[in-house]
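[Meeting: bench + compute handoff]

Bench side (C.D.) handed over the final construct sequence. Compute side (W.E.) agreed to return the predicted structure before the next meeting so the bench team could plan truncations. Sequence as handed over:
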Amino acid sequence: MTVKSSTREAARLEALRQYSILDTPSEQTYDDITDLAAFICDVPIALISMVDLNRQWFKARVGLEVTETSRDVSFCAHAILDKQMLVIHDALEDERFQQNPLVTCAPGIRFYAGVPLVTPEGHALGTLCVIDRQPRELSEQQKNALEALARQVVTQLELKRVSARLANALETIEIMEGLIPICSYCKGMRDDQGYWSTVERFIEQHADVSFTHGVCDRCMRQHFPDVATALLADDPAAATTTDTEDELIE
């Protein structure tokens, strides 16, 4: 059964990209969480799954050899459509999954419980899930523990993202603190490769900023005197402010 896409799918996928987690090597922190999930829930399989556009990729896994599967057959693709835990007690009795090849063939899923990994902005990137090859139930204590572990996964993702942003910010500061060659005539800037560009382009290359353009009062009077006179007529008080600004510039 093909899962319906979330109405916020484009934004969710963009959020997944921003975390830079897809196809990264295994990490002990995430491996430990899946080990704990499998132990607490007493199941043979536990996964941290990230749901990409056409696949689900496993950041950490216990009891499963493959590193990804098609999204079309993914239980987790259903789980991320809600913020609550998805529990399938017996997949053979659920019409959504009865004919799913993950149920009818290896690994022979019968039980599934997945907690969405929801970011602070509300995007479900994937799940922390536990799987069994026979029907079963989870106790309330097991459900609570699984939800707590899912929150720890999100915390780790956030820490990694914030650390990456801080590293980029520090790199930008180091660049901007250095000596920047500026043309004395056109005020263009020269980059590390020796190419000249505008101030706007140089800053956009080294910082996450964008520009909007206008004309200051001094340049307005110099280059567009008719417009400046008209504006002054509409707002006589602007004359005093403009004179003060000119004194500061000079």
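W.E. noted at the follow-up: The mean pLDDT is 84. C.D. will use this when planning the next construct.
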